[in-house]
Predict the 3D structure of the following.
Amino acid sequence: MTDLLTPVLTADWGTDRAWTLEEYRRTGGYRALEKALAMAPADVVELVKESGLRGRGGAGFPTGMKWGFIPQDNPKPKYLVVNADESEPGTCKDIPFMMATPHTLIEGVIIAAHAINAKQAFIYVRGEVLHVIRRLRAACREAYEAGYLGQDILGSGVGIDLVIHAGAGAYICGEETALLDSLEGRRGQPRLRPPFPAVEGLYASPTVINNVESIASVPAIVRGGHEWFASMGTEKSKGFVIYSLSGHVRRPGQYEAPLGITLRQLIDLGGGMREGSELKFWTPGGSSTPLLTAEHLDMPLDYESVGAAGSMLGTRALQIFDQTTSVVRCVLRWTEFYKHESCGKCTPCREGTWWLVQTLQRLDEGQGREGDIDLLVDLCENILGRSFCALGDGATSPITSAIQHFRDEFEAGLHTPSSELFPPAASMLFRQEEVTA
Amino acid sequence: MTLSDVTMGELHELAGRYPHARSALLPMLHLIQSAEGHVTNDGIEVCADILGITAAEVSGVATFYTMYKRRPMGEHHVGVCTNTLCAVMGGDLIFERLKSHLDVGNDETTDDGRVTLEHIECNAACDFAPVMTVNWEFFDQQTPESAIEVVDRLRAGEPVQATRGATITSWREAERVIAGFEDGRVDEGPTAAGASLAGFEIARERGWTAPSLDAEGSTAGVADTKQEAEEQADTTRAGTETLIEESPADTAEEGNDD
Ligand SMILES: Cc1cc2nc3c(=O)[nH]c(=O)nc-3n(C[C@H](O)[C@H](O)[C@H](O)COP(=O)(O)O)c2cc1C
Ligand code: SF4
Ligand code: FES
């Protein structure tokens, strides 16, 4: 029986100077690397496969299997790229992780690169997080100085280089093929698949792209073994993950637990909802995953259960909104985000998000027209499944799910502004007498 | 050509860090901003020259990403998150207040050239909502008053400290770190703070841990084993067990209800 919370990735977050090599080594850092370097690359892949680790960046694809797709007989160099772009609204785990313990990620990078025979790795970190970039750069330098990176790592004959690469502000660059274009110095626009990155990725060479948390889980798996890892979690969703709780709860924050904990348990751990607050709707995995309601409080937060409820576990970005919040206002704001971030490559998303914003704006202002709700549903149907990448699909998630759960609120948008039905001041964190702007 | 020899050298250095030089374009544009105050035409030409691509190609990249500015910037960049969660928690009001206090619109610079204000998208700190940034450092859980105080201090040239990060320098110095050069401030600020530690602290209070990491006959070193031993010793098992006992039962039961 495992405990309700199981800090592994977050275990050293309370340690002073945990970002330094010295501190990391004190708690067993880089011991997994020694172990992994003594293993054949294929055995490392096998270990990760057996652990059941699934991608933590949203889709939940088995990590070991992804590594196994790299064609080792391909004569081109192999690359490992860590997706540290963390920009999905609500998602806020990788950034504090890299600020606190960048060496865990770097150790994972070296092990993963060894496993797929990559000589070069990259961490693509979003540009808007200065202090995180500082910590990553310093950790990378320390790792080189200590001989964990560079040629002949720890006398093993293995050589791996790592570049910390900062992006420049574009949500779409979190999409893995857009990320690759961006890393090649281009506009970040998704690529047609196939060919898949495992075959033709960065510089048209075999490439593995993994989320920060996926890679950061690897050192612990190497140290603890796959059975240790699989002793946590549910049958098909193994291991521990970071759940990010935000919004109208008493104690927002990062909670590391085995997969399968429920939202009710998480909220209760932190003392419940904020004063006078009742759960109205929430996102399980960021704004691109369909909204859920209080009905789903006791659903295990693992890949299968959230999927069965018609949403997605995504990045476990649990944004919590209470009864003071207008769902129309929220959906409008998310849609404005997607419109702004649409890369413009395909018509359904580029044009569709524009129309969605126009329509939602009217409803938000209480100026909705007869048929606007059907228009929204219709627009979403034309975007979903017809866009070039998952950004377009994701843009429809909050809209269709909100209409499904709160249709009457959209109908009210035909005559009443959302700010009248739900005065924004009531939803704010700080006291309301300040609200006179 | 206004770029200094030092900057030229650094641009070449960035290009040399990658298997294919063009990969350095994003960092190079960050460095141009640091040296020039924004992405200048000169800067674009120089990047194109170094990478052997056209100025139009560089320009196409520069206009794609929101962090690149084609107009001169203020000394400091102040960002207010107005993505949904922060907006609802008060970000919209903070942004409105700052606009009127500074007498600027979105993406505009104060008359004294000190502050450029911009609303930004989710900056991966939602548990600290409403979030503000100064030169891409975190200012957590802001109120209109605290935000105004920060910008006033910036305009007065007084020292300002990020909530989770370092002392504020300037937007141009920040851009240099983002481009790829360290500034010696890595050891400022905490490992983690506030909301980041919510689960960690609850687990510590209740003595909850993951199963021991080095259980199966590893070559565990002294420090590690000792630390784990300590953790186990701390554990208030009895109190803990009751809580866990309840939870999986709930879970199994509710799992069937849809
Ligand atoms: C629009 C969009 C944005 C994304 N943003 C991120 C991101 O910021 N970080 C991330 O790890 N994955 C992101 N993803 C998912 C990646 O495409 C990819 O699936 C993931 O990085 C794979 O890593 P994993 O297998 O370790 O989860 C995004 C996907 C889409 C469609
Ligand atoms: S769906 Fe949107 S983001 Fe994706 S390729 Fe099309 S326009 Fe670009
Ligand atoms: S919504 Fe503001 S930081 Fe995420």
About this structure: Residues 216-258 of chain B have pLDDT under 50 and may be disordered. The pocket of FE2/S2 (inorganic) cluster (ligand 3) is lined by residues A 89; B 81, 83, 85-86, 122-123, 125-126, 129, 131 (CB under 6 Å). The beta strands of chain B are 76-81, 108-109, 115-120, 132-134, 137-139. The two ends of chain B are 67 Å apart (CA to CA).
